[in-house]
Design goal:
homotetramer, alpha/beta, five-stranded parallel sheet, hydrolase activity (chains A, B, C, D), Amidohydro-rel (chains A, B, C, D), Metal_Hydrolase (chains A, B, C, D), carboxy-lyase activity (chains A, B, C, D), Amidohydrolase-related domain-containing protein (chains A, B, C, D)
């Protein structure tokens, strides 16, 4: 751990600056939105992962960026090395967006989910049980099958829950519909989630092409979509779940949202104010306020977030026990996320410990032996 | 002004509670997103205002709410009385959403804009110059005409700028396209805005019906759209303006965004991080970061916002000189907005003065004689 | 519990203001710095409580204030009624300042401590076990006896710890010395505290008269002393404990400080910076930073504090698990403290629960059956 | 200016960490509590500066520290170099503590003040008018003479105001009294301050030896005094000024306090609450609340402060227009203060500009040509 100790040496003050500040490394961090690729992808005739990865589907990322991502998606030693450099002790991996949700054929999707879960288990969890856990892929094209696969992944492979990339494609590329998670067809899946008592990570996905028009004007495909558009579409998806009464039917269900809960902390009070003008019961069978659901049924991860005031807003709406560090590797850098988090002022040490690993350990029942990590410094 | 003076009477402490806290009224507030109706509407064969007002287009608002809105849109004495009750000294009014933007016929739209501006001037500004100013309506269906009308409204009627409700309909109800403000066709308008040096208030509007599907599942038309969906669509619209290079061509242009800048403060740092992965120049001719534009070319109003942590996040990204109180009357209540603002702790008195009226006076050159209002209390 | 429910009634918004805001009452709060008097006082020939109560020793309080205090110190029904009005469920009482510390005769002090503890137990704890606990009085004039009495009070009377009012007078009124708690003579007491594993509340006391000159210029005895002078003297006393190495010898000892830890959160980082310029070991046998001790060996109560930004500063230095609601009744009003706390924005519900009662229940092992109180509102 | 530009190079993310973060240097900062020595000192037979410099009077600082201070007090090139390294463009210097206040002989004090002001002008201001200004030394032992010298220094030497180190010694070392600034004898001085319309910086000084006992237990002279004790004694001194009615007699007088206004922001609301229990008029002729005076008659500098939450608390009580960067060189390091300030998150750029130089330029009418410094980064 690197501490700027010069201040503690007898009788000296810093009298020169290198324009740098030492980051007091916070070890044992846990990250939860970390993507992996799959060798099984091409065989199923679906969109190869590299085309629809966040920010690239029809958008102009640099070749360097795309190649860097592609190389890191499946390189385990490189991933571990990056974690070690950054003080990240344990990571929950999941299949990268668009994941199973982008597979048009229902049977393919179901089969692929099973194989992907086995592959992730074999490549990450089994060989490195004290470094990796995973969120299972599930084929929501067939919710009953998804429920079954979730149960298998949790009970047989030790999955910590499921990760779902937004809406699912139902049909074929030429003729498909979109299914969101509040669709009645998904009920068997949610019943199983409640029964297994595991969380579901709701992750963004590129909106359907014909709905990208809002943020793309045809002339410049906007990378901004990857940060703003996809994020807020996921926030809207979360609101659909709340309004659908899901959390009244199953009060124990917990949903993880990345990117500081996709701006919901910033806006949720307004959503409640507007909803109050409606005819009771006319816009969904929900019974409580959106703020209530946000702080009882949701957790926020800080994937992609490197701004103190955004984190403070999130903590104030949801409570610090429901906010967790994450990165979104390899689309974000472990190093940048950690340097920012480990240094940032404005959060108490106790708060940082919770965000760094304590909350995740409690919520996901992680037993990877992180207790030996230094948390509170005698000098900080 | 009501102050809880009992604490300052010799030798007493409160020894009973009524469960209420006195609000120390802050007089002379200025509000900027305050909607009015128009008697001219029906004559133009467009969507009557009451159908597409925020939250009602196809959504299930209560009849009471709709009738209350409808009655207040055009009732000047009732509006003034509400302002007086709430310590709001001066208001900038504008034609309610969807405004001119929802008028399909270009000639109608242009003609209507002119007549609406004259009507607002005659009903609000001329009779009450120390209580009302206005933002002009402009028909972006014909940007050159819009530029001309903006100039007339500013120079002849003293308009403080323009208010535009999102995208404009180009065509007919059966066959139309949507034009956002970064469209090249809008250039003459922006050149005029820069020349006149007045702000443009970019206000939400119900997204096109076929794009409402994201937030409405067909079963329950979501009122949440009015708070979340419409808002974030407006934030996306602002990002389009930034990415289009508008503020590089015209560094002086200022855009007002309501609802605490539509969550941009929460997300803007992430947008910058994602944009950095792109091929330089491939996603727009912009030259600076989104954060830079947000704090140099935008102002945030607090219409609909009643949450301290949201305000703090906004102030931290944009600076307190660029944040201003507003209500969104009659869709929100002057009284609720004022009770919340006047009481809220966590903002210095100096900050509150700026948000309440000082920033607006400076930016909009308001000379309504508000200086006599009490700002700093000797006891608070 | 009073919630402003009108916002949730179908289709209405507030359209009038009474200049008041409803306080959403937070039930089951616990308060820890609540003073009681004693009928035993006069018999021991010491300073009567009413002369040296905070703010009155040589200072000009109003007669009304002094009489109100005097009446409330011993009136149990009036105290309970005030608690009920304010949503305070459980209170830890203690003998009012200057307490035993102001008794000059060592034998008297020791004897008085024992009798006061029995009296408090008989009048508060025994008849109302689900409303009152207490911190024991101890005579630090004889630390070995104090240790013995603390043990008796904890084991036989269920005392939750001790409350000590600053320095102790050793000697006689005409000829005395002052003993602070880092004096070597106090070691037996601290060993016992560590053994019993109970906290010690370090409470302010009027500084010795000849040290009041800093804040009193002879012309105007400053009431400001009661807020600023006494408080910062207590903060200094806490720093003495840290520097003396007490928490290195006994890492488990926990000290409670009122008034948001007496400004230590605001200044502690500076104290560490200044200490780093010294010759290691020359100013005390302490081994860690003052910040470390503050967050590992101290708890802050919010007695007398009604300011969000002060609370935020305190939480950031110490963590929200180490901050607790309190009042300082009867010198402060339960009603004012509760109205402020229950309403204040800027703290998450989860944080408020911890400050209100969760932290105290955990730290003091309170089993008063508060679980039935409503904590999280479905509408807030 | 060092910006971490790698994020903006096409298509890359950081994939390694050095454990350091680049500080984006903020140029043109102004610092106001910067001490210089004087060659005249020894000749006047007073306490040599090096003995009573903060933290050394009877306290065990390291020899290295003391020598480093001594060398820097009078070395102008070294001081300028440090400023250049740290992005500090302009500094207001003043004679180091205990300054003139520590000179026992009234005639000596008065004479020394004049000579010190001429010396500072000749060594700092005259040769480097775009780098240095100064606060005049004044001999409060003779307030009428102090008023005269202040006027001379302001009008003839361009002094920006006066800096006074706490109380003054009146008499001889063997037999002296202490005079605080609210003493009636000081009235002629305050009248002149109001007339000249310049601020007075109220700086800490080691409390009189016999009042150090609070923080020194005789065994370990506490360096903590230099941070906590001296600071809070200065806060108490400021409260005396408020309570004395000085700001009612002269509403325009402005006092600068270092160290984030010596914890007054943290405690001032409590001081007001306690004062309200008194007999009106019995504790001073003041007419307003302490909070009112703090935000109308005081400015806070951040000398010695490197903690975001302390700064936020200060800004919330006083407003960001009344808070200014400072260092306390050479007792603190320009480099540490600047690295912290330039990097810290949680303050908007606009706020940082004000703290860094805008407020000081306005309040002290500084015309040193700092406008060319880059303030807002296009990338930050």
């Amino acid at each position: 751990m690197e501490i700027d100790r010069s201040l503690y040496i007898e009788g000296t003050l810093h009298r020169a600056t290198s324009g740098n500040l030492s980051v007091p490394r916070f070890f044992g961090k846990i990250a939860l939105e970390e993507a992996v690729g799959s060798t099984l992808w091409d065989a199923y005739g679906t969109l190869p992962a590299t085309q629809e990865i966040a920010g690239t589907n029809g958008l102009a990322v640099s070749l360097d960026f795309a190649q860097d991502i592609a190389s890191r998606l499946n390189d385990v030693p490189k991933r571990l090395d990056s974690m070690d450099q950054s003080g990240i002790g344990y990571v929950i991996v999941s299949l990268t967006s668009p994941g199973i949700e982008g597979v048009f054929d229902k049977a393919n999707a179901t089969d692929l989910a099973t194989k992907v879960n086995d592959e992730i288990y074999a490549n990450y969890v089994q060989p490195y049980p004290d470094r990796f856990g995973f969120f299972a892929a599930v084929a929501m094209q067939d919710p009953a099958a998804a429920a079954k696969e979730l149960e298998r992944a949790v009970k047989d492979l030790g999955a910590k829950g499921a990760l779902i990339n937004g809406y699912s494609n139902i049909g074929s590329p030429a003729n498909y519909t979109i299914q969101y998670l509040d669709d009645e067809a998904c009920e068997p899946f949610w019943a199983k989630v409640a029964e297994l008592n595991v969380p579901v990570y709701l992750h963004p996905r590129t909106p359907p092409v014909d709905q990208q028009v809002i943020y793309g004007n045809g002339k410049y495909p906007l990378l901004a979509q990857a940060a703003y558009g996809f994020g807020v579409e996921t926030g809207g998806h979360a609101l659909r779940l709340m309004v659908s009464g899901l959390f009244d039917r199953y009060p124990s269900i917990q949903i993880f949202l990345g990117h500081a809960a996709e701006a919901l902390p910033f806006l949720v009070h307004r959503t409640d104010n507007r909803l109050s003008t409606g005819k009771s019961g006319s816009d969904g069978p929900y019974k409580k306020s959106m703020k209530y659901y946000l702080r009882n049924n949701f957790y926020a991860t800080l994937s992609g977030i490197r701004r103190l005031s955004t984190v403070l807003n999130t903590i104030e709406e949801m409570g610090e026990d429901r906010v967790m560090f994450s990165v979104d590797y390899p689309y974000e850098s472990d190093e940048d996320a950690s340097d920012w988090f480990d240094y940032v002022e404005g959060l108490s040490s106790a708060t940082k410990e919770k965000l760094a690993w304590k909350n995740a350990v409690r919520v996901l029942n992680i037993t990877a032996g992180l207790e030996s990590y230094q948390t509170d410094s005698e000098f900080l």
